[in-house]
Amino acid sequence: MPLLHCLAVDVVIDGNSLSGIVTESKSGRQAILAKRVIDATGDAEIAFRAGAPCRKTPKDEVMGVTVNFSCAGVDRQRFLDYVRQSRPTYGDWGKSWQMETTGKEDHLFSTYLEEPFNRARSEGLIPEHLTGIGGTWGTLTEAGEATNLNMVYMTGYDCTDVWDLTRAEIEGRRQPCWPSKP
Ligand SMILES: Cc1cc2nc3c(=O)[nH]c(=O)nc-3n(C[C@H](O)[C@H](O)[C@H](O)COP(=O)(O)OP(=O)(O)OC[C@H]3O[C@@H](n4cnc5c(N)ncnc54)[C@H](O)[C@@H]3O)c2cc1C
User: Fold this and answer.
1) DSSP state letter for 119
2) What is the pLDDT of residues 49-86, one digit of tens each?
3) Which of 21, 107, 158, 169 is the most buried (most CB within 10 A)?
C-alpha cells in the first residue's frame, strides 16, 4: 500500500547496500525497510543521501523555475478572439526561449502567450526587467477563470536548496501580481 504525506529524510545502509529509508511525517520518524529502493524524487535525493556519486549543474546554468498560477475575471470572448486572431503555435516558443525542435511541430496550435506581455512591458505596465513573463495557459472556464498559467520563468535558483526554493516561491507569486500603473 502506498504511504502518502511523508518525506524521505535519510537512508538505512546495511554494509554496502541500501536497505531502506527513514521518513518524517505527522506520525513521526519511521523507517521503511525494502529489498529494493527506487529513487523517484526527481532530484536523486535518496541516491545523494546514500552517498552515490551525483553531479549538480551550477546554479547560474540550471533550468529556470516556474510558479504556476490561475486567475479569474478574464473576458472570455475577448481572450478567445485574441487567440483566434493571433494563432499561436509551438514555433512561437523559439522566438524568446532557447528551444530546439525537429520543426514538424512548429505549425501546431499552442496555448502560448507572449506578445501581450511584451506590449505590457513596453507600455510600462510590467517592469522592463521581468523578461521571463510569458508562456502557456491551461484551460479557460465559462466563468472566465484561466487555470494552470505557466507564465513566470525565473532563473538562478537551486531547487535542492530550501532557501532558494523559498525565495523562488515568494518571487514567483509576486510577479503575476505586479500592480498596473495608476
Ligand atoms: C511548470 C512546469 C512545466 C513543465 N512542463 C513540461 C512539459 O511541458 N513537458 C515536459 O516534458 N516536461 C515538463 N516539465 C518537466 C517535468 O514536469 C519533469 O521533468 C517531470 O515531472 C520529472 O518527473 P519525475 O517523476 O522525475 O519527478 P517529479 O515529477 O518531480 O516527482 C518527484 C516526486 O517526488 C516527491 N519527492 C521529492 N523528494 C521527496 C522526498 N525526500 N520524500 C518524499 N517525496 C519526495 C515530490 O514531491 C514529487 O511528487 C515541467 C515542469 C514544470 C515545473
Assistant:
1) H
2) 999 999 999 999 999 999 999 999 999 999 999 999 99
3) 21
Task: Kindly give the distance from the C-alpha atom of residue 42 to the centroid of ligand 1, in angstroms, as a whole number.
Answer: 6
Domain ranges of the chain: 7-49, 65-177
Instruction: Write down the pTM of the prediction.
Output: 0.87
Element (H, E) at 165: helix 162-174
Q: Is 153 exposed, middle or buried (0-12, 13-18, 19+ CB in 10 A)?
A: buried
Residues contacting 144, CB < 8 A, separation 6+: 72, 73, 74, 75, 76
Q: Are 168 and 154 in contact (CB under 8 A)?
A: yes
Q: Whose CA is nearest to atom 48 of ligand 1?
A: 41
According to DSSP, residue 65 is labeled B
Return the CA Rg of the chain: 22
Q: What is the 86 CA–ligand 1 centroid distance (Å)?
A: 31
Q: Read off the pLDDT band of 131 (50, 70, 90).
A: confident
Q: Decide: 139 and 123 in contact? Cβ < 8 Å.
A: no
Using the mean position of ligand 1's atoms as its centre, give its distance from the Cα of residue 153 in Å.
16
